[in-house]
Design goal:
- The complex is a heterodimer.
- By secondary structure, chain A is an all-alpha fold.
- Helix content of chain A is 71%, strand content 3%.
- Chain A has helices at 8-21, 33-39, 41-48, 52-62, 75-88, 95-133, 139-175, 179-202, 224-232, 236-250, 256-273; strands spanning 210-213, 220-223.
- Chain A has a two-stranded antiparallel ribbon.
- In chain A, helix 6 runs parallel beside helix 8.
- Chain B is mainly α.
- Chain B has 2 domains: 5-197, no CATH class; 208-265, no CATH class.
- In chain B, helix 1 (5-18) runs antiparallel to helix 5 (79-93) and helix 5 runs antiparallel to helix 6 (97-134).
- The longest helix of chain B is centred in the middle third of the chain and has 42 residues, at 138-179.
- Classes of the chains: A mainly alpha, B mainly alpha.
- Chains A and B meet through helix 1, helix 2, helix 3, helix 4 and helix 6 of A and helix 2, helix 3, helix 4, helix 6 and helix 7 of B.
Chain lengths: 278, 266
């Protein structure tokens, strides 16, 4: 069997397909899944074109839920490209190994990537652009745009290519012993911690209810959020909301769109009655 | 100033081009560039014949969204709609920049409904792609990934934005007035709840023993220690290193010893 080699052109091609189309069909069920399949189109054809069974398996493998920050997190599809290449050449890389790498790493890279790109770089560049733009200086938006592309495109490209190199060099070692299990377990632990941090940061729901006790001079105002919920456990609401959502998805096997509808209904009722606020 | 239907349509197209996920300018060119009111406002200014004024309004409208982050498949607000239609309305009525910000804010919240709609309807195309995957039809998956969702997105973005830009702020002011208060709070609450979906989906796919404990640890680090996400990721890496070392290398003996220690402590 001739060795199937991905050359640089294939890797770069997949990178550009990812850069432009990763979110073209972004959705509440699988998020970037079809984006990844779309990015890998030519790679899958090249690696598995002569093997209908493996060809289909590769497509199904990447139709699974995937979501990460697409620039710095481009490391993950880069690594997976190398894993696919080795698998096509007969290395014993299982579906679980590839899925494990993807699901284990996507959380940490989403947290780190979004914090660096949207949380750090963007506000700095915007502050600069807005200060010029507010004075009617068109250089504000122009320089902002140039800097954004000029910084993030190289970062994304380097992350993708380095990911591939990492995968190509490291896969053999990783496959030896229990290294793979170790990486997946470690990345999952780290990922879960980052997700906990993100839930605390982004689920900003509060309970604005204030109970008035007594009357006249002895009137005491009790804020449920501060005196009850925060006293019990700060972050109780984000925790409960996430766990309830997870329970609906995992234990009740509800469709993500159904869960989204339920969250919207909770928002309408809670917000309407004034039980929930931000 | 009046806006022609053609100008209004172009404003709608700018809104579409900036919406997260449109492929024409790359993902970065949408969410990080045209989505930003600073850039969107300037483009709307070009369409209406006064780029400098558009830039000034755009910069002001952008202020509340400087720290905007879309993560986990959710968008807490829609700076794109605020930046395009908000700038158009401000230019039509010639208000000052503070008033422009005030008009644009409810637009930014209404825009999240467009986001939720497209994120929901796009699921249909994934299910169609699932069928194509069963037939190993890669070309069809790639078609389904780009063409139908983008036609849908184009309609979802351009139609409301064009109408809103054409009718102008005054005609819609009544509507916006009706929205302030409870409806606006409801939109904010929904926006604060939805990130849970993306996070829970990610947790479900990790699904390993101890996942929830690590999750709670991350949450506590933000709520009680006020640590930034990067620091928590780094700490998570350290914890993961020791956790896996104990789990896999630490031979049964070490684990047993640790268990013994625990017993003595109690």
């Amino acid at each position: 069997m001739a060795e199937k080699k991905l050359d640089k052109k294939d890797i770069v091609n997949a990178f550009w397909r990812w850069t432009f189309f990763s979110h073209a069909n972004y959705n509440y069920e699988r998020l970037e899944a079809t984006g990844l399949v779309h990015s890998y189109k030519h790679v899958i054809k090249k690696l598995y074109g002569d093997n209908p069974e493996e060809y289909k398996a590769a497509i199904l493998r990447h139709m699974q839920f995937f979501n990460t920050e697409p620039h710095i997190g481009g490391v993950i599809p880069g690594i997976v490209l190398a894993m696919e290449e080795q698998r096509a050449n007969g290395a014993p890389i299982t579906d679980e190994a590839i899925n494990g790498i993807k699901t284990g790493l996507m959380g940490p890279f989403a947290g780190i990537g979004d914090t660096l790109w949207q949380g750090t770089l963007t506000p700095i560049l915007l502050a600069f652009g807005i200060s010029l733009g507010a004075q009617g200086n068109l250089l504000g938006p122009v320089i902002y745009t140039i800097l954004m592309f000029g910084i993030m495109f190289p970062v994304a490209y380097i992350c993708w290519m380095e990911g591939y190199k990492l995968g190509a060099d490291g896969v053999q070692q990783v496959l030896a012993g229990n290294m793979l299990q170790k990486i997946i377990t470690g990345a999952s632990a780290m990922g879960a911690m980052v997700l906990g941090a993100l839930s605390a940061q982004f689920i900003t729901t509060k309970c604005p209810v204030i109970i008035q006790l007594g009357a006249g001079e002895g009137l005491v105002e009790l804020s449920i959020q501060e005196t009850v919920l925060d006293a019990l456990f700060k972050g109780l609401l984000p925790l409960v909301i996430t766990l309830a959502t997870l329970w609906m998805l995992k234990d009740r096997k509800m469709k993500s769109t159904t869960v989204m509808l339920i969250l919207i209904i909770v928002g309408v009722i809670g917000g309407g009655l004034g039980i929930l606020g931000v | 100033m009046t806006v022609s239907w053609f100008q209004a349509f172009l404003i709608g197209v700018v809104y579409y081009l900036g919406n997260i996920g449109t492929p024409w300018l790359s993902l970065l060119g949408s969410i990080s560039v045209v989505y930003k009111p600073l850039v969107a406002g300037t483009l709307v200014g070009c369409i209406l014949g006064d780029p400098v004024q558009g830039c000034i309004y755009g910069a002001a409208i952008n202020l509340p969204y400087v720290a905007f982050i879309s993560a986990g498949g959710t968008a807490p607000a829609d700076p794109g709609l605020a930046g395009t239609v908000g700038t158009a309305w401000a230019m039509i009525s010639g208000v000052d920049t503070t008033a422009a910000m005030t008009i644009a804010l409810p637009l930014g919240l209404l825009g999240t409904m467009i986001w939720v709609t497209h994120m929901t309807l796009d699921v249909t195309f994934v299910h169609m792609a699932d069928k194509a995957a069963e037939e190993a039809d890669l070309d069809r998956i790639c078609f389904l990934h780009v063409v139908p969702p983008q036609i849908l997105m184009f309609c979802l973005c351009v139609i409301p934005a064009t109408i809103a830009a054409k009718l102008g702020g005054e005609a819609v002011a009544g509507l916006i007035g009706m929205l302030t208060g409870t409806p606006l709070r409801i939109l904010q609450v929904i926006g604060s709840l939805l990130p849970a979906l993306g996070i829970a989906m990610n947790l479900r796919s990790i699904s390993r023993p101890g996942t929830l404990l690590f999750f709670v640890a991350g949450l506590i680090m933000v709520k009680y220690l006020g640590l930034p996400v990067i620091a928590i990721a780094a700490l998570g890496g350290v914890v993961a290193y020791f956790y896996t070392t104990l789990l896999y290398n630490g031979a049964p003996a070490a684990a047993a010893a640790a268990a013994d220690d625990d017993e003595e402590d109690f």
